[in-house]
Every structure is written in C-alpha cells, then in structure tokens.
C-alpha cells in the first residue's frame, strides 16, 4: 500500500509555469526494502497529478522518510520536470 511519507512546504513550477504542491510517497516491497517517489498536485482544480518513477530504494520506512526530509527545492524542480516529461512521453506513445 502506498504511504504518504512527507509533504513539502515548497511549491514548485514546471517549465510552463504551472504551480504544484509536492509530496513524497513510499511503499514496502516484498523483500522488506522501501521505494520512494514524488507526486506533484497542481494548484487549482481539474488538472493532472504528476508522478515520478521511483526516485529511491531504501532499507526501511525510516530511511525513506529521512531521504524525503532532505530533498531541496532544486531537487523538486528537477523531479517535476521528470514527472511532466514522463506524462508527455506516455501520452505520445499511446497515440
């Protein structure tokens, strides 16, 4: 089950200027390790939530929480760019 790990106070903008709030999520794998990724919820309504692929693999829940707590705004800016690009490439490949 996906678990909310951390909510960031910093808002980030994508390359088109859209503003997002950022959250880190994690999930325990069968081997007991944890994976973490980021989700970006657009400000306003009716817009698509963006999600990165896996950003980290850690040995425990506490380790993934520690990872998320150390992310700087510049990392979030790069991650939202990856999430937007991921969405665009999957939309293009489905055409």
What does this structure look like?
The chain starts with a strand and ends with a helix. With 95 residues, it is α+β, with helices and mostly antiparallel strands. The protein is elongated, with a radius of gyration of 14 Å. The protein has one domain. The chain has two helices and five strands. The protein has helices at 61-69, 73-93, and strands at residues 3-13, 19-28, 34-42, 50-51, 56-58. Strands 1, 2, 3, 4 and 5 form a five-stranded antiparallel beta sheet that branches.
Kindly state the number of beta strands: 5
Sheet having the most strands? 5 strands, antiparallel
Order of helices and strands: EEEEEHH
Helix content: 25-40%
Alpha-beta classification: alpha+beta
* Oligomer state of the chains in this structure: single chain
Count of folded domains: 1
Categorize the overall geometry. elongated
The averaged pLDDT comes out at 90
- How large is the count of helical segments? 2
Radius of gyration: 14 Å
Q: Indicate the low-confidence ranges by residue numbers.
A: 91-95
Q: What is the end-to-end distance?
A: 31 Å
Q: Quote the beta fraction.
A: 35-45%
List keywords for this structure.
about 100 residues; alpha+beta; 2 helices; 5 strands
Write the layout of secondary structure elements.
Blueprint (H helix, E strand, L loop, with lengths): L2 E11 L5 E10 L5 E9 L7 E2 L4 E3 L2 H9 L3 H21 L2
Antiparallel strand pairs: 1-2, 2-3, 3-4, 3-5
